[in-house]
Amino acid sequence: MGGTSGGGELDQLTVAVRRLGDASRELNARKARELGMNTTDMTALYLLEQHGPMGVVDLARRLGIRAASGSAMLDRLERAGHVHRAHDARDRRRITVAITDDARCTSAEAWHPVISAIDEVSGSLPPDERAAVLDYLRRVAAAMEDR
């Protein structure tokens, strides 16, 4: 059963990808609530964990928020002990933000059960199916990144 998007019936794989996106957003919101923060703060911690320290403006841009909102968010995260700010090693005028070790551990504990479950599903695929799924997911991710 396909859905519609103004132009007719969608492929079942497209519908499944949309469902995966919905499940991901709902999971992120649930984990954020469990950790006592909002989803933007949770996403900021994820970005810092995945990409390493970055400037306030860079982080705000990746989150799609204004720099002033990013500063307020970082104030909250710093008060909670989730991030720390430091002068950039190459440009002392620039402030970079990094996730703390405690926040990294808390995040790992919160996400471990779901990441393990996904990894178990991934590991259960036979090699030929793995190759097809991996290719498909890479192409879908590229399509999403390009638009």
Protein architecture, described:
Residues 10-142 form the HTH marR-type domain. Pfam families: MarR. This is Winged helix-turn-helix transcriptional regulator. The chain has 147 residues and is mainly alpha-helical. It has 6 helices and 3 strands, in the order ααβααββαα. It has a single domain, classed as Winged helix-like DNA-binding domain superfamily/Winged helix DNA-binding domain (Arc Repressor Mutant, subunit A, Orthogonal Bundle), CATH 1.10.10. It is 68% helix and 8% strand. The chain has a 3-stranded antiparallel sheet. Helix 1 crosses helix 2, helix 2 packs across helix 3 (56-63) and helix 3 (56-63) crosses helix 4. The longest helix is centred in the first third of the chain and has 23 residues, at 12-34. It is globular.
Task: Summarize the entry for a quick read.
Residues 10-142 form the HTH marR-type domain. Helices cover 68% and strands 8% of the residues.
